[in-house]
Amino acid sequence: MTIRSKSMMGVALAAALVMTVSACATDAEPGAEEPTESLAGNLEGAGASFPDPVFQEYAFAYSGDVQPGVQINYQSIGSGGGIEQFLLETVDFGSSEKFLDDETLAEASEIRGCDAIQFPVLFGAVTIAFGDDQFDGLVLEAETIAAIFQREITNYNDPAIAALNPDFDLPDLEIIPVHRSDGSGTTSVFTVYLDDAADNWELGNGTEAQWPSGTIGGKGNEGVTAGIQQNDGGLGYINQAYALINDLPTAAVVNADGNAVEATLEATTEALDVLEIPESFQYNILGIGGGGYPIAGSNWIFAWECGYDENQEALLKSYWTWATQSDEANALATDLGYAPLGEGLKPKVQAAIDRINSKN
């Protein structure tokens, strides 16, 4: 499902989710923030690098402040790897910025003998970042971005970029596009956006693309960040948290209403329209206007309705309840530029968490 703005005033993520679900939310409280018993054990997860900065903070805070007997080991291997390891049953939970489609859910059911569960936990922006501070705030729009990554625009002083940036003194410098070399949910968010917004985009959409020669690949958001930093003229797409942590300059991207917007938490959470999140949690976020930043995505967690022992069930439910429902976890997310779940969406996500191991 595609979630798209129907208003000329704009659309974004988290606060809209608050408005959307609040009308159908019950009076039941979401999962308790304080643990009712001491737990011990290890949780193994793997997947998207998109949320890795905050997932590492989550693990540290949960083991330090909430359940000292529990260790969370999350491996940032990319969304494709997260889906693969989840289906291979080598991890307790998987993570991706691409939801499981109906075909994959059917495959999962055959593998485990019960249904897979997926639920969103975070929202964030995919930024266009640069290695050179002189490009901070450079305005780009979807067709220009598409042309850059297709190597149709190869220099910063290209007339198409100059027309968008009359106040910039653009250098005669080759653009070095940096992309993900692994199966990536960030790539999925980025290419789904371009496939929708740029008429000249020819590389399709999904977790991988056939990038042209003259581009550089990097593994994970970490690898793309390094590629941007290490190459003169480097430009790449990374999660906003990586741009913040590494103090990288970023572009202002023209949204569906023609407004050039920089990737800030406020631009990700601005909500002047109502978004409907389907019960399946299968959706893309497109058509963002107003003051909203247009390249935005979600991170999903995958778990199972059966197959865990009682302790692993308790660990998974406790950890993801805390990560999605608690004020402490929400604050950790916003500090790194992520938008946590809106209050209206939290009960729906909690209901999905409560399904873990429910068919055992």
Structure description:
Strands 2, 3, 4, 5, 7, 8, 9, 13 and 14 form a 9-stranded mixed sheet that branches. A 3-stranded mixed sheet has the order 6-10-11. The chain folds into 2 domains: 26-123 and 298-354, D-Maltodextrin-Binding Protein, domain 2 (3-Layer(aba) Sandwich); 125-278, Periplasmic binding protein-like II (D-Maltodextrin-Binding Protein, domain 2, 3-Layer(aba) Sandwich), CATH 3.40.190.10. The longest helix has 16 residues, at 310-325. The protein has helices at residues 14-22, 52-66, 79-87, 102-112, 142-149, 159-164, 185-197, 220-230, 240-245, 265-269, 310-325, 327-335, 346-354; strands spanning 2-4, 41-47, 70-76, 93-96, 116-130, 139-140, 176-180, 216-218, 234-239, 252-254, 260-262, 284-286, 296-304, 339-340. Residues 5-34 have low confidence and may be disordered. The chain is 35% helix and 20% strand. The protein is α/β, with parallel strands linked by helices and 360 residues long. Helix 11 (310-325) packs antiparallel against helix 13.
Give a quick summary of the entry.
By secondary structure, this protein is of the alpha/beta class. The chain has 13 helices and 14 strands.
